[in-house]
Amino acid sequence: MSSYFYKGQRLATKLTAGKTGSVFAGAEFVLGEIGEKMQLLLAVDRQNSIIKVRNSRCYSPYGFDEVASRESILGYNGEHRDVMSGYDLLGNGVRAYSSVLMRFCSADVLSPFGAGGINAYTYCEGDPINYLDADGRMKVPVKTSAPEYKKSYGISRQSHAIQGDSNLLPLSIMEKMVKAVKNVKLRPSSTVGPDSQMKRAVPHKFWKTVSQEVARYPDFDPQSYADKMVAAARDKGGKNLSKIPDSMVVSALSHYVERGASSLSAWSGLKELHALEFISHESAHSALMQQINRVVRTNIPEMPVLTRE
Q1: Inter-residue contact 49 to 78 (CB < 8 Å)
Q2: pTM, full prediction
Q3: What is the pLDDT of residues 238-267, one digit of tens each?
Q4: DSSP class of residue 220?
Q5: Cβ(276)–Cβ(269) under 8 Å?
Q6: Residue 146: strand, helix, or coil
């Protein structure tokens, strides 16, 4: 008999006959497995399916493979497969899926009129390539593969998406401008962690273009715009863990929007920032910029982290 321990929707530890196997993972992908007498590094695809441990593994679109003895606890889509039944136990074990039958063994409580789809037994509504089902209840899109993030990134003044539309909210202006990027030869960094990504500088070219575009709107108020940006970031979970109050972040962000990311030397809140309990003026400036970058990246998560080629 086996006991299973989960962390959220992901299997963390399996205990069988006194032997323990634990899985460790990053924010999105499974990385390895540790047992009493083994340590395995796992190679996975974009759906978290284990494709290589010591020997290569391959699956049919619905997850069938012919490997009899499994080196890893996890398999197709990073899910655990019960050795005795051959079923994948999805949703922390609440629902069994058969890769041989290409269907679930019990009906979906969210079908036929809810998110589970019209067929209560089908897996990902018949599209296991572009979707996966981690909780046994509904399909979710597979994350875009890594090469998608390596496309050229830049900002062009030719933002046709907002031409002639004066009713757009300020936040919508910025989102559309990010999608219109073309020219600057920068590329996303693949070696930066999620938390560090949020602190990374927003490209100077982006700020300059923002200030040029918003200047086309006579009634545009940078202070109100910055206030909306900060409020939206907080609503989306972008917390302020620094000594710098949100009111100061709003003021500095307004300065950046209005002046196209010029230095803070002309910012009216500089003395107030220096009065805070930081080791130096430089560390205060750095903390403020990290907060501004977090606000922008929380509102626009699709903006990549950039490094010059």
Answers
A1: yes
A2: 0.38
A3: 777 788 899 998 998 888 877 766 667 788
A4: -
A5: no
A6: helix
